[in-house]
Amino acid sequence: AQTVTQSQPEMSVQEAETVTLSCTYDTSESDYYLFWYKQPPSRQMILVIRQEAYKQQNATENRFSVNFQKAAKSFSLKISDSQLGDAAMYFCAYRSARGMDSNYQLIWGAGTKLIIKP
Amino acid sequence: EAGVAQSPRYKIIEKRQSVAFWCNPISGHATLYWYQQILGQGPKLLIQFQNNGVVDDSQLPKDRFSAERLKGVDSTLKIQPAKLEDSAVYLCASSHDGGTPPLHFGNGTRLTVT
Fold first, then answer.
1. What DSSP string describes B41-103?
2. CA–CA distance from B73 to each of A5, A45, A52, B49 (Å)?
3. Which mean pLDDT values do the consecutive 10-residue runs of chain B (114 residues) have?
4. Is-contact B19 B78, C-beta < 8 A?
5. I need a labelling partner for A64 at 20 to 30 A (CA). Which of A38, B19, B34, B57 fits?
């Protein structure tokens, strides 16, 4: 079974600095998706960035980028120029790219709380 | 496009009472999910619908939880009777179909059982 591990329960960063959140996963599959979701106090899960496993190029969305290391099964999120609005829980998630509909479940990490210091 | 709508935002009930949550997915999205998120944890899938059929309800406590998605659009999740351990945020999400990420989430309902 697939698992997702986020080893940092909490991280803090000074406003305008860069922070990296860690995520590792375990799978025997070769084709899958990885996601980072942000959950602010409003509770809505917001997709930050996604990565398809078959793509070697790391995904980037404005100030957010990932370091995808497929062999090491590592998927870290880098936030550049941190802003107060980035404060939230960040969840890493895995999803198989193949199989029946029931196999398309998201496998979630436990989350990392990001604190932005003004 | 309008997002996933959920109501109510908050609900406080006493144990052994019943409660219902409502979700309206993004228009055209065939797949609808209900998640339970206990404080400090990642979401746990309770049930997944494809149109109005159930794809996966393996983690739904069927002795007290029920869900339906009539006409393949909006959905309700019910708990009867509620227990203290049901206190959580209940998230609804939808996707175009089961095979196409990502999921789009609503704002969730925070349930407190006293």
1. S--EEEEEEETTEEEE-TTS-TTTEEEE-GGGS-EEEEESS--GGG-EEEEEEEESSTTS---
2. 34, 21, 29, 10
3. 90 97 94 92 92 90 95 94 97 82 88 97
4. yes
5. B34
Q: How far is CA B63 from CA A74, B7, B59, B60, B83, in A?
A: 39, 23, 12, 9, 12
Question: Which residues partner with A67 through β-bridges?
Answer: A76
Tokens linked to A43: 């509770």
Tens-digit pLDDT profile for residues A24-36: 999 998 889 999 9
The neighbour count for residue A109, using CB atoms within 10 Å, is 25
Under DSSP, is residue A33 helix (H, G, I), strand (E, B) or coil?
A: strand
B25 touches chain A (CB under 8 A): no
| Residues across chain A | 118
Instruction: Write the DSSP symbol of residue A17.
Output: S
Q: Among A21, A17, A19, A38, which Cα is nearest to A81's?
A: A17
β-bridge pairing B109-113 and B10-13 = parallel
> How many residue pairs bridge chain A and chain B with CB atoms within 8 Å of each other?
56
Does A111 sit within 8 Å of B108, measured CB to CB?
A: no
Give residue B61's region: left, alpha or beta (phi > 0; psi -120 to 50). Answer: beta
- A35-75 pLDDT, tens digit per residue, is 999 999 888 899 999 999 999 899 999 999 999 999 999 99
> Cβ contact (<8 Å) for B98 and A106?
no
Query: How remote is the C-alpha of B58 from its chain's centroid?
Result: 14
What is the radius of gyration, based on Cα positions, of chain A? 14
